[in-house]
């Protein structure tokens, strides 16, 4: 299977409705693919919080209304922050029936106050076990960070270096939420404490945005990028149900399955877009994906190995942290970035010699995880 | 593909959480199938309003927590009131990878006031075009009923006969929301007006419940029932975007596609479970499915042809109207009923000689529709 078209809106606080965001990303992806819109045979939508933020569910019918000529099956998938990756995975599961399908990831989050947004996002966690005790996501990831520090000697400065790198990368990405924002270590380390040890700059923002992919069974152009593996795994929803808070078993299983399907190992990956909803999540991802041994992500961060054009660039787009995290769009946007890099169209943030890219998209605190691996020529 | 196991909770106002409902239905379906739970390779969940009613999304991870031994992919689908039918359709789309999967439909709706429930259910309609004008679902279906009356001479008494039949059927179904409730025409025709011409008894209730299916690639037992067609279609979301309010193009297209796949025509269907969220919807369904010509459903209703053990029994279970409408569960529950009938296990409501059954599950006012056709021996 091939990514034959990509399209994204700007990520940020946008004055646009859900239908406008959807149309914007889809139109760009279809145009980019060079395929007639009438040739799209099915659409798979990833969206997390349309019901909570806009009281707008049944987004598949909204999208059908935007494409009245296309009498095609459209469905919405939801797997919390992995909704976009889930939509792509299940689209690929259905590709035996179709030649060309479209995957849309979308979220509009700026319609609520910050406290309401935190409550709505909390719906990715267990209502009975966690939400009732106030264990929403900054608190969950703070517990993970605390454990990682205790067990492995990770420091707040390591987290700050992750944030700094991702903000630096986002300044080469015009679609990024924080494009153009000058950020330095002092700002990060002195930013307000959200939930100790996580400060404001350890957290991804509340963003609006959409991203779309045209997926085709056959390669149609030299710009097409091959999807060589797609894996999706689920796990228990609460930290209280896990043996180790510092690793996500769903991510490890999805990665293992994807490496096997692609016939590669972690060391063959040239670059990755990982789910840095919080800075600690990027470090956990590096370990779960096998880029380093457990607890050793700090070494790669400190040496600069994950910066743009170092050994293993991570989140060249700016990641969720600085490119933005319109939740349902994130997993789809990661694939857009990998395709842009593999096509050699990433301009100022182009990773040289990139051939194999990996996308890692997590729901909740690892209750679900999609891993996709893509290859260039 | 075969339905090898079915399981349902009671439908009604239940003192049970979402995880309890899920576990209840799934455990029954797995036990009924005779398959080891460890042999289930994937789960597809239909749920509409977990985010709105319980602030509980990411239900796939909740279900993963209930089955800690099963390290399998689980996803949630949402297509408004067709979420259950969508989950089954997309599960079947993925069956080329699996031997046995489970489909779960679930909803808990009694956690909100009636006015909040109406608002949440309204999320199946267009936020911008319809919700803002108060065009929620009783109002939408009232417009449809009004048009149907004007164009085709359908009367309030026809609608009442639909309600009466479905309540009578539900009294043979112990799991039905209104099991045991004595209902007569006078009660129906004197019930409070909800939105003219629809009275209280024209509307399906707010219900809690879950239903589950084990789907297997191979026939394993004589009780297994074959799925001979699965179709899913989408359409515009608002009546304002349609040429004719009295027909759902998505239902017509899904039915046409399903009949073609099954190699049958409408006249071969022995019985059906159709989406009677409002009584008028059952009449529209009969016409869209080709059981009679457009506008002529009233003739079948008046003659009693759709009663239990008449020519074409419709909603032997009691339908959404009287068996209940826990939204995400509905499309899955319809398949349970068809399997029970085809197995010959429906006891007092058994349809004699039933061999081909059809399920019709609609999202919103026809913004999406799933049609499944099943065959007995």
Number of helices of chain A: 13
Q: Please name the two chains that share the biggest interface, counting residues whose Cβ lies under 8 Å from a Cβ on the partner chain.
A: A-B, 61 and 61 residues
Helicity of chain A, in percent? 25-40%
CATH class identity of the domain at 2-113 and 206-216 in chain A: Alpha Beta
CATH superfamily of the domain at 2-113 and 206-216 in chain A: Thiolase/Chalcone synthase
Derived structural class of chain A: alpha/beta
CATH topology call of the domain at 2-113 and 206-216 in chain A: Peroxisomal Thiolase, Chain A, domain 1
User: What is the distance, rounded to the nearest whole angstrom, between the alpha carbons of the first and last residues of chain A?
Assistant: 13 Å
Mean pLDDT across all amino acids of chain A: 97
How does the overall form of chain A come out from the CA principal axes? globular
Number of strands of chain A: 11
Oligomer: homodimer
Percent of residues in beta strands of chain A: 15-25%
Main sheet: strands, sense, barrel of chain A = 9 strands, mixed
Low-confidence stretches of chain A: none
Please give a structural write-up.
Two copies of one chain form a homodimer. Helices cover 36% and strands 18% of the residues of chain A. With 377 residues, chain A is of the alpha/beta class. Chain A has a domain at 2-113 and 206-216: 3-Layer(aba) Sandwich (Peroxisomal Thiolase, Chain A, domain 1), CATH 3.40.47.10. Chain A starts with a strand and ends with a strand. The mean pLDDT of chain A is 97. The interface between A and B is large, with 61 and 61 residues.
């Amino acid at each position: 299977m091939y990514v034959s078209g990509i399209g994204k809106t700007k990520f940020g606080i946008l004055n646009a409705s859900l239908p406008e965001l959807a149309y914007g990303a889809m139109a760009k992806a279809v145009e980019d693919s060079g395929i007639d819109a009438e040739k799209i045979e099915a659409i798979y939508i990833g969206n997390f919080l349309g019901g909570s933020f806009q009281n707008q569910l049944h987004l598949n019918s909204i999208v059908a209304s935007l494409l009245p000529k296309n009498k095609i099956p459209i469905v919405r998938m939801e797997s919390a922050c992995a909704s976009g990756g889930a939509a792509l995975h299940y689209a690929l599961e259905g590709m035996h029936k179709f030649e060309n399908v479209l995957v849309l990831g979308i979220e509009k989050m700026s319609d609520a106050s910050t406290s309401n947004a935190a409550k709505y996002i909390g719906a990715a966690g267990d209502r009975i076990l966690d939400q009732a005790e106030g264990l929403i996501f900054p608190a969950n990831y703070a517990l993970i960070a605390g454990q990682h520090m205790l067990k492995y000697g990770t420091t707040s400065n390591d987290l700050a270096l992750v944030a700094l790198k991702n903000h630096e990368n986002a300044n080469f990405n015009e679609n990024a939420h924080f494009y153009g924002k000058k950020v330095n270590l002092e700002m990060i380390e002195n930013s307000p404490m959200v939930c100790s040890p996580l400060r404001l700059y350890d957290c991804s923002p509340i963003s609006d945005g959409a991203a779309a992919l045209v997926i085709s069974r056959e390669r149609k152009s030299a710009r097409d990028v091959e999807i060589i593996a797609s894996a999706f795994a689920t796990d228990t929803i609460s930290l209280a149900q896990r043996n180790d808070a510092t690793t996500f078993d769903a991510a490890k299983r999805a990665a293992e399955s994807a490496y096997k399907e692609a016939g590669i190992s972690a060391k063959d990956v040239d670059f990755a877009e990982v789910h840095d909803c919080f800075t600690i999540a990027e470090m956990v991802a590096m370990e779960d994906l096998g880029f380093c041994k457990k607890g050793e992500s700090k070494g790669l961060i400190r040496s600069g190995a994950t910066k743009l054009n170092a050994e293993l660039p991570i989140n060249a787009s700016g990641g969720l942290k600085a490119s933005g995290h319109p939740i349902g769009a994130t997993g789809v946007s990661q694939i857009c970035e990998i395709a842009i890099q593999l096509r050699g169209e990433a301009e100022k943030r182009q990773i040289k010699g990139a051939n194999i890219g990996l996308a890692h998209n997590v729901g909740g605190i690892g209750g679900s995880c999609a891993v996709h691996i893509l290859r260039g020529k």
